[in-house]
């Protein structure tokens, strides 16, 4: 009798939690920060303005300069923010700071985060390399970098060129195309499929998963987008469980198979770490490269003199990719949490304070870059940008992104030298990720 009475209560509690937990996750991770930043923007707060103006796709150059005018660190009601190149590099490389999702170091919120956890592998939550810290990060990254070497990426170059040529062959030059949908999005996800050892018959599935999971890297997602992301991550986790089993049974000539086999003192990555790495490759490798390609095409069509330099000297293409990354980077900013009381540039930073390092702003620092507002594919120090971060969390896929950017941009302008953008191009309404949602173009 007791069991009969309590079973409905347990069922009701489970259903209530199934509703309450995702709402809590969304509220803490997205809704509350979005509301707080909008309110701060209305008060003129620099960080609030940065978030709101970024989501509208505005030119942020003036705001970068205003933040920089406050010194190495600008202190606001939201926290601390910097667009100084030297400060960004110091913070990102310092042991005094650790990675953080934009949630305050608050005991109640931390308990709610723990209670509401979905248990899903997430690209910006532990054990992802983006979110882990030493000593776990040291062991983890050492194993991953042993596989994702510059040589391994270079071996993908020939295949990446072949994929690019196939995609360009498939474009109808007589009709307008959306370059994001028909080119910029397809190239990175097809390369990612090579890295993950995805069989050809499953690549359409991975393409769909990559596009849906990419917003997981951003802040302030609407409820519907958040739920789509979570459903996608759950689906990817299920697919990946089976896929890893297949690769263990029949390893292939791909980086994920090599990562499964990687060992340090006889110890390899755990199942969750393998999944986290694959998820990071999918989400981060997809969205950032889509943005790099789209931003690059837009910049080069708007600066025909720079495109002419590349046609006169094709050896400049590699440098041009770094100038695109400097001028209009795929990621606006990243955040760090002070692990102890410290100071940057003479400004005290209290333990638990959040600091936003604005990568795009550091890339416009006149102390590092002459005439930083100019787009110059021959810029001598273009590679000094911080678009891949710095320190122990420097982007693992930097070499891959550069290679894909070089091949993807060079090839489309070689194939379609008269390419021009049409009206209707639209920037993404995102706060951290910077790129185009649509980019209509005429190829001839």
TrEMBL record:
Its EC number is 1.14.-.-. One of its GO terms (biological process) is cholesterol catabolic process. Coiled coil: none annotated. Keywords: Heme, Iron, Metal-binding, Monooxygenase, Oxidoreductase. It comes from the Bacteria. PROSITE patterns: CYTOCHROME_P450. Pathway: Antibiotic biosynthesis; vancomycin biosynthesis. One of its GO terms (molecular function) is heme binding. The keyword Acetylation does not apply. Pfam families: p450. Belongs to the cytochrome P450 family. Involved in the coupling of aromatic side chains of the heptapeptide of vancomycin. This is Putative cytochrome P450.
């Amino acid at each position: 009798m007791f069991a009969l009475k309590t079973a409905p209560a347990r069922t009701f509690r489970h259903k209530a939690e199934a509703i309450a937990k995702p709402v809590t996750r969304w509220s803490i991770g997205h809704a509350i920060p979005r509301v707080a930043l909008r309110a701060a923007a209305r008060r003129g707060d620099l960080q609030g303005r940065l978030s709101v103006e970024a989501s509208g796709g505005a030119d942020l150059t003036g705001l970068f300069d205003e933040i920089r005018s406050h010194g190495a660190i600008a202190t606001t009601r939201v926290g601390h923010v910097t667009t100084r190149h030297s400060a960004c590099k110091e913070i990102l490389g310092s042991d005094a700071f650790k990675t953080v999702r934009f949630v305050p170091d608050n005991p109640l919120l931390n308990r709610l985060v723990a209670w509401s956890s979905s248990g899903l592998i997430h690209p910006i939550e532990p054990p992802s390399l983006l979110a882990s810290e030493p000593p776990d990060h040291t062991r983890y990254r050492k194993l991953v970098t042993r596989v994702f070497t510059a040589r391994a990426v270079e071996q993908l170059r020939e295949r990446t060129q072949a994929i690019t040529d196939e995609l360009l062959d498939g474009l109808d030059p007589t009709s307008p195309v959306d370059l994001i949908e028909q080119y910029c999005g397809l190239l990175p996800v097809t390369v990612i499929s090579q890295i993950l050892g995805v069989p050809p018959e499953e690549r359409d599935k991975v393409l769909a998963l990559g596009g849906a999971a990419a917003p997981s890297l951003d802040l302030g997602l609407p409820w519907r987008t958040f739920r789509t992301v979570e459903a996608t991550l759950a689906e990817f986790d299920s697919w990946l469980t089976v896929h890893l089993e297949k690769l263990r049974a029949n390893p292939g000539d791909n980086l994920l198979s090599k990562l499964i086999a990687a060992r340090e003192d006889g110890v390899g990555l755990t199942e969750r770490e393998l999944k986290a790495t694959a998820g990071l490759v999918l989400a981060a490798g997809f969205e950032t490269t889509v943005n790099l390609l789209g931003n690059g095409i837009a910049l080069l069509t708007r600066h025909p003199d720079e495109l002419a330099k590349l046609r006169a000297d094709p050896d400049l293409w590699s440098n041009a990719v770094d100038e695109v990354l400097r001028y209009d980077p795929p990621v606006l900013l990243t955040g760090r949490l002070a692990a102890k009381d410290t100071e940057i540039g003479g400004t005290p930073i209290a333990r638990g304070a959040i600091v936003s390092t604005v990568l795009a702003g550091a890339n416009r620092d006149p102390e590092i870059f002459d005439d930083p507002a100019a787009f110059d594919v021959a810029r001598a120090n273009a590679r000094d940008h911080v678009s891949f971060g710095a320190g122990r969390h420097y982007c693992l896929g930097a070499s891959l992104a550069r290679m894909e950017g070089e091949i993807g941009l060079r090839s489309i302008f070689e194939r379609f030298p008269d390419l021009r953008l049409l009206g209707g191009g639209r920037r993404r309404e995102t706060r951290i990720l910077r790129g185009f949602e649509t980019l209509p173009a005429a190829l001839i």
